[in-house]
UniProtKB/TrEMBL annotation:
Species of provenance: Streptomyces brasiliensis
Pfam families named among the record's database cross-references: ADH_N (PF08240), ADH_zinc_N (PF00107)
Keywords: Metal-binding, Oxidoreductase, Zinc
Cofactor(s) listed in the protein's UniProt record: Zn(2+)
Reaction equation(s) it catalyzes: 2-deoxy-scyllo-inosamine + NADP(+) = 3-amino-2,3-dideoxy-scyllo-inosose + NADPH + H(+); 2-deoxy-scyllo-inosamine + NAD(+) = 3-amino-2,3-dideoxy-scyllo-inosose + NADH + H(+)
The keyword Oxidoreductase is annotated on this UniProt entry: yes
Protein name in UniProt: 2-deoxy-scyllo-inosamine dehydrogenase
Record EC number: 1.1.1.329
Length: 347
């Protein structure tokens, strides 16, 4: 099969022929029809993820068709249209037993702990625990977004953020996850303040329902601007980018008893990120992380997508072939871009 492979961190990946994957006994191999380009892929390529060993094939938000099934898989057969959460759970640890597969103790992640979906085929573990059927009328490009960016945003806003209609929500960083969060929050009846450094990203945020936009290149103190725009601070705030500056701004832009949800990865050199904890104490703030979404909680989100309340299809702004993927990955620098690129490995 063809796959995007990199041998060294930060050096341009190449498209080459590699061996087709085989399913393990509890796993499947999926023919990849669409796979999104995510900032986490860029972090992995840059060497920020300790799970990756070289050479490596990135890619973790995918949809496709089951090609081959391991001997112990009971729920899936070749031809099934599927997606998968990027956190693939083991199904048997204490976290999985509690229904928290998104923080599984023995998780695998395609594109991180093993070769991912920037390829024509990808192997996935524990298929009976992790695969999610996608409706016949949903495109593969749309379904791919449910593997990472859209599901991650959904859990951050709805499950971890416990958003209520009428609340103010601040979203720091309007890449794929951030724009998804803007759409989900606006559809939930919240008033959204979107923050980004890109006018293109803010234009999309406005289109997806943001009531207010803050251009961080023109507003040095984005937290002060949010306190002003929301009449005292956001009820819920997401750092959807992942940087010490956006994390702090998210916490500092909250009102009393507000909730901060950290979604963006924080690749700090020393492994820790400063957080304004004095404010967290004084205002009784709540700080939470959010990490993917368990496969068994997908049906509620899928129904909102099917009914048209949520439109993840609108987030895709470009579609490219596998051959164009290495350049698209390299172009995904810290400045971010507007919208989401989807790779179609068979185009
Ligand atoms: Zn991702
Ligand atoms: Zn587990």
């Amino acid at each position: 099969m063809k796959a995007v492979v990199f041998e060294r961190y930060g050096e341009t990946a190449e498209v080459r022929e590699v061996a087709d994957p085989e399913p393990v006994e509890h796993g499947v191999v999926v023919r990849v029809e669409a796979t999104g380009l995510c900032r986490s892929d860029w972090h992995g390529w840059m060497g920020h993820d300790p799970d990756i060993t070289l050479p490596h094939v990135p890619g973790h938000e995918l949809a496709g068709v089951v090609e081959a099934v391991g001997a112990r898989v009971t729920g899936w057969r070749p031809g099934d249209r599927v997606t998968v959460p990027f956190v693939c759970a083991c199904g048997t640890c204490a976290a999985c037993a509690a229904g928290d597969q998104q923080v599984c103790e023995r998780q695998s992640q395609p594109g991180f702990t093993h070769w991912g979906s920037f390829a024509q085929y990808v192997a996935l573990d524990h298929a009976d625990v992790n695969l999610v059927a996608i409706p016949d009328d949903m495109s593969f490009a749309t379904a791919a977004s449910l593997g990472c960016r859209f599901a991650t945003a959904f859990r951050a806003v709805v499950q971890q953020g416990r958003l209520a209609a009428g609340e103010w929500v601040a979203v720091h960083g309007c890449g794929g996850v951030g724009l998804s969060a803007v759409m989900i929050a606006a559809a939930s009846g919240a008033r959204v303040v979107a923050v980004d450094v890109s006018t293109g990203a803010l234009d999309l945020a406005r289109k997806f329902g943001a009531a207010q936009c803050v251009d961080a290149t023109r507003t040095p103190d984005t937290a002060a601007e949010i306190l002003e725009l929301t009449g005292g601070g956001a009820h819920l705030s997401l750092d959807a980018l992942g940087s010490p500056a956006t994390c702090a701004a998210s916490v500092n832009g909250l009102r009393r008893r507000g909730r901060h949800v950290q979604v963006g990865l924080l690749p700090s050199p020393d492994g820790t990120t400063p957080v304004p904890m004095a404010r967290a104490i004084a205002l009784e703030l709540e700080l939470r992380g959010s990490h993917g979404m368990a496969a068994h909680t997908y049906p509620g989100m899928l129904e909102l997508v099917r009914s048209g309340v949520l439109r993840p299809d609108l987030l895709t702004t470009s579609t490219v072939s596998l051959d164009a993927a290495p350049a698209a990955l390299a172009a995904m620098d810290t400045a971010g871009g507007a919208g989401v690129t989807v790779i179609e490995p068979w185009s």
